């Protein structure tokens, strides 16, 4: 009987799972008192503004990674030269990406290879790249970007068009319309949602 009682007691005791938490990996698990203790670097039970910034652990981790990327020689300092070189590289990279984007755009849509996009080629860009179709006033808007009035947009004009075009003056392509791709053709079907009335 004693053995049975012992087995019953042992089986009734349930061990709770034990988990080791690492707040640096999951900041949501860090308790407020842990955050304060971690941020109070000088342990004086007060936070300076710089220490207060440390309470935002994801921000601290992000800035640490950014600092390490900027500190090219890993000496613990970001010099003015390192700082300027980093952002110059980013600027050049952004310029290269834009050049590649516009190069591909003209390569794909400039059908007559005149390094300009006429109104029909622009409509094609809008349909294939943005899934938008022009309204009746599109030719007037287009003329506003065609500064030299040659009926097409050169690269400089297209860059301005791309940055400033009022996209609210376009409509989305009808889902039933074909959206031709470079390599394959996709056709969308019109389907009614359950809450739509039958017409």
TrEMBL record:
- Domain EF-hand spans what residues? 58-93, 97-132, 133-168
**InterPro entries, from UniProt?**
EF-hand-dom_pair, EF_Hand_1_Ca_BS, EF_hand_dom
Pfam families the record matches: EF-hand_5
For whether the record's keyword set contains Ubl conjugation, the answer is no
Q: Which UniProt keywords apply?
A: Calcium, Signal
Task: Give GO terms: molecular function aspect only.
Answer: calcium ion binding
Signal peptide positions are: 1-15
SUPFAM superfamilies noted in UniProt: EF-hand (SSF47473)
Q: Which residues span the membrane?
A: none
What is this protein identified as?
(pine wood nematode) hypothetical protein
């Amino acid at each position: 009987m004693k053995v049975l009682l012992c087995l019953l007691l042992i089986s009734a005791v349930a061990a709770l799972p034990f988990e080791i938490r690492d707040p640096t990996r999951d900041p949501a698990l860090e308790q407020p008192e842990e955050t304060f203790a971690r941020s109070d670097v000088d342990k004086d039970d007060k936070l300076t503004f710089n220490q207060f910034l440390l309470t935002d652990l994801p921000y601290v981790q992000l800035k640490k990674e950014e600092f390490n990327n900027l500190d090219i020689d890993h000496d613990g300092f970001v010099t003015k030269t390192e700082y300027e070189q980093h952002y110059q590289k980013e600027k050049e990279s952004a310029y290269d990406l834009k050049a590649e984007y516009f190069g591909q755009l003209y390569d794909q849509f400039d059908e007559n290879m005149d390094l300009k996009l006429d109104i029909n080629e622009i409509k094609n860009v809008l349909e294939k790249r943005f899934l938008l179709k022009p309204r009746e006033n599109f030719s007037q808007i287009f003329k506003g970007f065609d500064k030299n009035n040659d009926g097409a947009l050169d690269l400089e004009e297209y860059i301005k068009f791309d940055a400033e075009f009022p996209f609210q003056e376009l409509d989305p392509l009808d889902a039933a319309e074909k959206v031709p791709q470079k390599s394959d053709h996709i056709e969308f079907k019109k389907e009614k949602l359950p809450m739509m009335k039958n017409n």
